[in-house]
Amino acid sequence: MQVKVIYYLEIVSSWCYWAEPTWAELKRRYAGVADFEWRIALMDGGGFPTSRAQEDWFYRRSGTIVRSPFMLNGDWLEPGWGEYLAPNALAEAAKDFGILDDRVRLALTEAAVRQGLKVGRWEVSAPIAATAAGIDAAALLAKAQSADIEKRLRASTAEFHGLKVTQRPTFLIEDEIGDRAVFSGLVQLEPLLLTLEAMRKDCAAYASWKAHFGDPPSA
After folding, report:
1. Residue 141 banded pLDDT, cuts 50, 70, 90
2. 132 is in which domain, residue-wise?
3. Domain for residue 219, yes or no?
4. CATH number at residue 123
5. Is the dihedral of CA 61, 66, 68, 70 positive or negative?
6. CA nearest 163: which of 190, 183, 149, 193?
7. Which residues, at least 6 apart from 166, have a Cβ–Cβ distance to it below 8 Å?
């Protein structure tokens, strides 16, 4: 692929929820043209509201900004929990069962921010993830609670922080000629489309140049 798009997300992030239509449309328009991958960027305790009242305030703000006809449900929040490892680990673990698409993480996100289910608890999130994946819940849970999965989550979170950004969603767009663009906190489609088109045109131009002139001189 000439272009790759990496989407860094947190399962229970409301802004990631609002970004999902943009992600889906990018994948639809560039199917077979660009390579798409999502990776977990865990939020630590400091990134979460400290109370339900504060959560509702944030949900009212984000909901009106995106012109949503409904308000998100903050019942999933358990103040003081710190990380919400369970839903993120289960979504990541499903990859090891061949589930590389969005269905498991979307089911967990919907359960949290729309239904208000307490997905931070393994016993709540595991059946949701297993049903979405169509695999055995005990097997998925065992994989999700393994050291290997946590290591992968820590690594992808470190990658996210290595971009020197703080907001989720973050979209990293790279092409084969070394161009790179980072959009952090943006949920609108248009800037991402413009960037993808610009990168595709540049890659095509480089390919045309190489066809006419070959590799550059060694000296």
Report:
1. very high
2. 3-213
3. no
4. 3.40.30.10
5. negative
6. 183
7. 184
